[in-house]
């Protein structure tokens, strides 16, 4: 459990930060907010690289910073791995020595992913003998990521670690980070602009704006809210925790169970019983007033229309659906809503294309089972 | 330190002659003496601070006095066997003799920008002798602002050799050794205190037979020819 | 070893100069790095005073520095007297003294270069090292020091060159004893003090120059490697 | 028209680049490829900052580089604006002076967006008096972008200019870049990992891998191909050029015409007659074998199933559809395909949710009208 | 102007020292930047030779430098003779000569610092300036020069300090003429060469020291501003 409360002001009339939040003991907490809202500043303060004018940073009951009592644990004794926004590789060391820098200084007995594993996953094996100077932007960022991971930290702070990576590489690294979080029970503070990274990793979300915390909470709860800036995004939608029920290799399908019923998705690698989290994007959910037939969409879920909420765009609406206990959002045009004569309380069919899920990744094992 | 090593601290202006003597000394079957040449002032201070000098050969009396006052000298051995003359030199290509006597108007010899090069009267021995001589001539007030005060005799000589100064006041030994200058006048001996080079055995070398022997050699009759060859005058 | 065109004494002066310059650099390097670090990173009241003291050997004439050293390390000096009494060590008039005087004279030069090197180290990299668990001394050795090494090299080169030419402080503090403390510049001086010694002085100066070129070529080579190592080339 | 042909090898056994492509006179050409494939190296060579071992760079018939004839125009005389991957702001100049650096050196009479406009759009007005040192990652990137734009270049080279920006800011900047391309007829070479940026801006696409060009061509043609790595992406789909036919403000809908018929989309700001480009993602397209009813999906298009192609994932298939002359891709599970008994040549209904379009932006005015 | 605790002559020496040190720095700054630029960026055959020539004043004793200057700029020298004939300028024995000798002596120090400053300039920023249309001279003035200014400042400070203490070359080339070329170090030297002159020498050395502190404080102030301007603080 990480508790953070910070107050800091750069110069008299400069940017002022006043943010507090908590992060779970072994989950990913994503810091999300526009450019310049203070994300990197928060990471620096948690890492101990910035001493805020006032504040506390407490990890598992141990105060690392407390301006009230004058406690300040220097960064080198915090064992917080940091992936900086600008990589910050040591220019005089080879890529391999960069990677090993933290590893060598980790306490004996500290566990974490092995050197070969990290190198293979990040695809930097051919760079080991090189110096950072000639590396491409993405290569640099991957080495920085590897370096932080290999330091066997007890908390990982990552500042847009995948921003310079292409989709393919990201799709490889994200599940790895998720595994890491689960296997090493490593808490992670994760700064990103990309919602798919939030989906794949984050357990908690801290929404920031201009140095203040707008909202803070579990990802599933926050993504179902229509009053946050998140909902204005084109990829807004609800995260749903599921359990793998069965595989149908012949048809290439996996059956998932969730609080509101079952979903068919393309075959998943996880064994039955595993838990998954899927983003059902509001715009990927359609509704029908009668049970549809002859559609390629395999997921037709009976739902109750709980509420109709504005989307921010004048001619579109959010439909707040309840599929059993699970909330779901659908985004439809005002026109459709009128045509179908939608009214709160009405029974509907929610249609979800089976391939329309966000980038899937194993959810944290601490997620409660679907009730 | 073995008794038979011998370290001589000698004023820089004795460099040439002392090298010659050292060779002659060696040729007589003696071990080579170690020679250290620097300004008399530097040498005197080093001796004060315990420098391993057995023999001190100063270019002027006050620095020998300085050492003697600090009780570092075997008083009985202090002698001033050689001397020098003070001369006026000019660049070899524009040398015209100048009669140096009381009231000789030296300033009149100088163009509006010209200077007379010599040692700095504040601390270089040749400068002090020059000051005395000029004062004796009644020229000090007129000439002193026109002096180019050099760090040592050689620098003063150089200024004349290079034509920067049309005249210089230096020792006759230096003038004799330079092809670039010509002596145009010699200051009367009575115009300045005698230019002497005091030698003395250091107290630390009181029992050093080598040192005593070398001092004796330097001041003995066999050396007279060499001293003269290098332009020094023998005292008395 | 002795090439024919140098007298034994001159050859000795060459070797002694190299030795004195090298030793002076070796002696002053570590304190210079320390002092540079204090001056750049330290936050203590007497910082400018320390800075001024470091510059002192530049500001006063070398002869005065030599004189000061003589007063301190001489047999009657506050440092020299105990050294002599307790350890029987007499510094003055040895080649160690020449190296010490040279070191003191070139100290401000090394400090200045090292400072510049240190100032151009990106603090972000030190911060990164901290987060990877490197304590103050560790990260200084593994990050700061390598990154400031161009400054250290520059300081070394300048100090070595200055060491080859140091005159006033050496002749005053260590005296001009051939084979013992007579370095090249002192030999050159001796030559200029001798009527007709210009040729010898010129020849010796040329040797100094050749040594300097040798040192610079070496430094160039090291700098190339260093730049490659620092990933700048 | 920009023609580029480059050969370069770093060190003996290092990365080797051997790439050639052309870019249109006043359009955006996107360089697309995995990290380390040589994108930044190509930009550097085009800008003149890297002299390749062999190659030619020709803009509108003027050779800027030709190693065969020894021609090399120095970067400062090329007037190519560059947005570097690492911002490269001048640390000793204020943000404003940084912005004006290129503007001051632009030839008189060169036209381009005004200072105020650029500053307002990039949201950096409050930073003008600051120095770059304290800027956040995204702020820095925005200033760098502004600086390049204000230099009034005749070609713009941008290396992941929006990677550090949040979605909201990107959604503002993208249409601006599109306007710039059209208004100033400024050719742009654009490096990105994000497909939505390609959609919004790119006319041509150069697909790179390991220093080689995999494919090169118009975006619409390349996105319809199923044999390129592009198709393996979860957001793969065809770009379709459309014309705004009419607005229905009351229902909040805009009717678009394209080669295969009409589409209803949420109200667009463009006046009727404007041309737009929309990405119909394969996974946003469903098919039905009979005309569906009572669906919230408003776009039901009659289509011919032309071919069934593998997707790379074993249990999913691409359906190549022809909606009139317009190709369309649908991504369905093998199971659906079997259940519906799909066969090439068959008539189907393609279903597209009206809100399921990629980030829309005005397409280049040089796009041909839908035939 | 003349404080009571300084004799008129000493006061003059102080003023002259400041003047000579300042002028020497001003004179050598521009060539030093140029030479540093050549040494760092130049790719020409004689680079190491140029480097060695720059270091020469460090390597040979100051007296020899003064002597060399006399040969060059003396009334019979290859530069001094035409200067005198064509312009009626005679350098030797003037305070200009003292400044020139000081400049030559401190030249390697400035060059070294400027080089370090230049080497730490990120070439990526110069590249950025090029793409924004800045030609060689333009980007040197607007980007390279400001970014290397910490090195220039460091060089200035070192050279100024060294200028305050320069002795051997000045006395040889410019001679010791009170009010004209007698700078502080010459006065100090004079004092130390006189038996019993220690007190006077010490007082003058203290004045030098005070001047150095003043200079350093000023430099510190400028450096602070500069660092803020360079966005490093
Ligand atoms: N100076 C250099 N020396 C050696 N190799 C280099 C040098 N510069 C680049 N490379 C290599 O060339 C390859 C291409 O680099 P480049 O920067 O062009 O990649 P990129 O496509 O821009 O990648 P990214 O998306 O990660 O920025 C990389 O593997 C990089 O390591
Ligand atoms: N040293 C500083 N001095 C003054 N202002 C600063 C300093 N460091 C950061 N700021 C300001 O604080 C604000 C927050 O910066 P921060 O780097 O935390 O933003 P961020 O949320 O990480 O943004 P981005 O997504 O663009 O990286 C910015 O407006 C920035 O300009
Ligand atoms: Mg940031
Ligand atoms: Mg790149």
TrEMBL record, chains A, D:
Alphabetized InterPro entries for the sequence: AAA+_ATPase, ABC_transporter-like_ATP-bd, ABC_transporter-like_CS, Mo/tungstate-bd_C_term_dom, ModC_ABC_ATP-bd, Molybdenum_import_ModC, Mop_domain, P-loop_NTPase
Gene: modC
Domain Mop: start-end pairs: 294-361
Any matching Pfam family: ABC_tran
Coiled-coil annotated spans: none
Protein name, entry field: Molybdenum ABC transporter ATP-binding protein
Record bears the keyword Membrane: yes
GO molecular function, one term: ATP binding
Keyword terms of this UniProt record: ATP-binding, Cell inner membrane, Cell membrane, Membrane, Molybdenum, Nucleotide-binding, Translocase, Transport
UniProtKB/TrEMBL annotation, chains C, E:
Membrane topology classification: Multi-pass membrane protein
Recorded coiled-coil stretches: none
This protein's UniProt keywords: Cell inner membrane, Cell membrane, Membrane, Molybdenum, Transmembrane, Transmembrane helix, Transport
Pfam annotation, one family: BPD_transp_1
Domain ABC transmembrane type-1: 14-217
Transmembrane segments: 20-40, 52-75, 87-111, 140-162, 204-223
Gene3D superfamilies: MetI-like
Subcellular location(s) per record: Cell inner membrane; Cell membrane
Protein family: Belongs to the binding-protein-dependent transport system permease family. CysTW subfamily.
Entry function: Part of the binding-protein-dependent transport system for molybdenum; probably responsible for the translocation of the substrate across the membrane.
Protein's recorded name: Molybdenum transport system permease
Organism: Plastoroseomonas hellenica
Underlying gene: modB
């Amino acid at each position: 459990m990480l508790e953070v409360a910070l107050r800091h002001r750069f110069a008299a009339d400069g940017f002022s930060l006043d943010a507090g939040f908590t992060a779970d003991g072994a989950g990913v907490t994503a810091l999300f907010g526009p450019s310049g809202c203070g994300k990197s500043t928060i990471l620096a303060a948690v890492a101990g690289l910035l001493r805020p004018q006032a504040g506390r940073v407490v990890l598992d009951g141990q105060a690392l910073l407390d301006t009230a009592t004058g406690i300040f644990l220097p960064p080198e004794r915090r064992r917080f791995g940091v992936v900086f926004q600008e990589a910050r590789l040591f220019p005089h060391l080879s890529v391999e020595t960069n990677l090993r820098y933290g590893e060598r200084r980790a306490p004996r007995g500290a566990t974490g992913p092995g050197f070969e594993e990290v190198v293979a996953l990040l695809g930097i094996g051919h760079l080991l003998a090189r110096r950072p100077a000639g590396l491409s932007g993405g290569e640099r960022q991957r080495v920085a990521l590897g370096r932080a991971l290999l330091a066997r930290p007890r908390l990982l702070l990552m500042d847009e670690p995948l921003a310079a990576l292409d989709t393919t590489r990201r799709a490889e690294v994200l599940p790895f980070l998720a595994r890491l979080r689960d296997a090493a029970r490593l808490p992670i503070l994760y700064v990103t602009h990309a919602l798919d990274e939030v989906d794949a990793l984050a357990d908690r979300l801290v929404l920031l704006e201009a140095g203040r915390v707008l909202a803070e909470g579990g990802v599933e709860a926050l993504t179902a809210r229509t009053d946050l800036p998140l909902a204005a995004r084109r990829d807004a939608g609800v995260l749903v925790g599921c359990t793998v029920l069965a595989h149908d290799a012949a048809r290439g399908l996996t059956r998932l169970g969730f609080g509101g019923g079952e979903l068919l998705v393309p075959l998943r690698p996880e064994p039955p019983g595993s838990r998954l989290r899927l983003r059902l994007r509001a715009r990927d959910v359609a509704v029908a007033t009668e049970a549809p037939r002859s559609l390629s969409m395999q997921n037709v879920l009976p739902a109750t229309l709980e509420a109709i909420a504005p989307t921010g765009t004048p001619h579109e609406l959010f439909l707040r659906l309840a599929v059993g206990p699970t909330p779901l959002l659908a985004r439809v045009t005002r026109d459709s809503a009128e045509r179908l004569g939608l009214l709160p309380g009405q029974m509907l069919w929610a249609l979800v294309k089976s391939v329309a899920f966000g980038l899937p990744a194993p959810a944290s094992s601490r997620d409660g089972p679907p009730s | 330190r073995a008794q038979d090593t011998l370290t001589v601290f000698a004023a820089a202006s004795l460099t040439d002659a002392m090298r010659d003597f050292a060779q002659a000394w060696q040729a007589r079957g003696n071990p080579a003496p170690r020679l250290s040449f620097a300004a008399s002032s530097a040498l005197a201070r080093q001796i004060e601070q315990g420098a391993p000098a057995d023999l001190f050969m100063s270019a002027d009396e006050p620095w020998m006095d300085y050492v003697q006052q600090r009780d570092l000298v075997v008083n009985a051995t202090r002698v001033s066997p050689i001397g020098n003359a003070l001369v006026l030199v000019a660049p070899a290509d524009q040398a015209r003799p100048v009669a140096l006597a009381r009231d000789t108007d030296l300033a009149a010899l100088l163009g509006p920008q010209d200077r007379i090069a010599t040692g700095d009267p504040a601390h270089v021995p040749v400068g002090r002798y020059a000051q005395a001589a000029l004062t004796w001539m009644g020229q000090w007030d007129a000439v002193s602002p026109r002096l180019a005060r050099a760090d040592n005799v050689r620098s003063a000589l150089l200024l004349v050799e290079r034509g920067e100064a049309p005249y210089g006041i230096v020792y006759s030994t230096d003038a004799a050794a330079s092809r670039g200058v010509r002596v145009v006048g010699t200051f009367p001996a009575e115009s300045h205190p005698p230019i002497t080079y005091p030698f003395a055995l250091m107290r630390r070398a009181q029992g050093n037979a080598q040192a005593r022997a070398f001092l004796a050699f330097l001041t003995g009759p066999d050396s007279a020819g060499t001293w003269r060859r290098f332009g020094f005058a023998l005292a008395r | 070893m002795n090439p024919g065109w140098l007298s034994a004494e001159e050859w000795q002066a060459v070797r002694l100069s190299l030795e004195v310059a090298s030793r002076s650099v070796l002696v002053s390097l570590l304190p210079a790095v320390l002092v540079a670090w204090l001056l750049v990173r330290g936050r203590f009241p007497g910082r400018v005073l320390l800075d001024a003291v470091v510059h002192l050997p530049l500001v006063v004439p070398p002869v005065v520095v030599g004189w000061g050293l003589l007063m301190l390390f001489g047999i009657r000096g506050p440092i020299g007297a105990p050294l002599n009494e307790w350890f029987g060590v007499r510094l003055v008039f040895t080649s160690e003294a020449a190296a010490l005087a040279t070191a003191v004279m070139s100290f401000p030069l090394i400090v200045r270069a090292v400072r510049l090197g240190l100032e151009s180290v990106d603090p972000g990299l030190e911060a990164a090292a901290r987060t990877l668990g490197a304590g103050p001394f560790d990260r200084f050795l593994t990050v700061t020091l390598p990154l400031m090494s161009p400054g250290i090299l520059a300081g070394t080169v300048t100090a070595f060159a200055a060491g080859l030419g140091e005159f006033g402080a050496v002749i005053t503090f260590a005296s001009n004893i051939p084979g013992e403390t007579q370095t090249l510049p002192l030999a050159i001086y001796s030559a200029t003090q001798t009527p007709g010694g210009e040729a010898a002085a010129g020849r010796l100066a040329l040797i100094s120059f050749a040594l300097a070129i040798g040192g610079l070529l070496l430094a160039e080579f090291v700098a190339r490697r260093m730049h490659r190592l620092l990933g700048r080339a």
